[in-house]
Write a structure and sequence with these properties.
244 residues; six-stranded antiparallel barrel
């Protein structure tokens, strides 16, 4: 018995170690799956809590939670695709936000997906207001600013008292976006080259290029009131430099 143990012991021992390793691997895999499940539930709970907090602050807003499923390659402005569309009540120009602030606007919509242009985009024009001075302007983007993750609030009056650190929110004019969505903070205030108005550079409050979970505002009080026609619908000239 002892001789057999001595001769075959290493093999028997190796077999036991192998079995123990298999058991440990199975246990580790089970723990990993539990962790993934926990992280998923945690993320869903955090998003649900954020949704409730935003809902409490804005009782007239209707939301559809969405996941970012793809980012447009080589797009300076960080446009992306989300996993909700017309089936979920999403329509063209719906605002897209996180709990921190405005991210962008739905620019294309399908049955089960939508594409979103971010507020860094040069083709996006949104009415913005400085909550400290109540000066209004037009929020838009540019490639140089987008590279820095910033955008600008243009057409501020020359006598504007806007200063760095001021918070900018949506003005809500035109009925395309609700009023009071946080956009970001002013970094600098400069004179336009025309000398007729000022512009402010803005750091968005939301993580524009890193957001993974967003909320689409599908309806809100005052939506589409006095809204200008969409591009391609022969819109009448309107005041506000193309403000949405």
């Amino acid at each position: 018995g002892a001789a057999i143990e001595e001769r075959f012991g290493p093999f028997l021992s190796a077999g036991r170690v192998h079995d123990e390793n298999l058991a440990l691997r199975a246990e580790i895999q089970d723990l990993k799956e539990q962790l993934i499940d926990y992280e998923t539930v945690k993320m869903e709970n955090e998003q649900f809590r954020e949704l409730l907090e935003i809902k409490e602050r804005n009782s007239d807003l209707i939301f559809e939670p969405a996941t970012v499923v793809g980012r447009t390659p080589d797009d300076w402005f960080g446009s992306f695709t989300i996993d909700v569309g017309t089936y979920h009540g999403v329509s063209l120009r719906c605002p897209v936000i996180t709990s921190e602030g405005l991210v962008g606007i739905v620019s294309e919509v399908g049955h089960g997906y939508s594409k979103v242009q971010t507020i860094l985009d040069a083709s996006v024009n949104i009415g913005g207001v400085d909550i400290h001075t109540l000066d209004t302007g037009i929020l838009t983007g540019s490639i140089p600013l987008a590279q820095e993750g910033r955008c600008k609030l243009g057409f501020l009056p020359r006598e504007s008292g806007a200063t760095p650190g001021d918070t900018i929110v949506t003005s809500g004019t035109g009925g395309l976006l609700p009023r009071g969505l946080i956009i970001g903070e002013i970094d600098t205030v400069e004179m336009e080259t025309s000398g007729l108005s000022l512009y402010a550079t803005i750091t968005p409050a939301a993580d524009i290029k890193g957001a993974k979970q967003v909320l689409v505002i599908t309806d809100f009080g005052g939506k589409d009131e006095d809204a200008p026609a969409l591009s391609g619908e022969d819109p009448e000239p309107a005041d506000g430099e193309g403000e949405e």
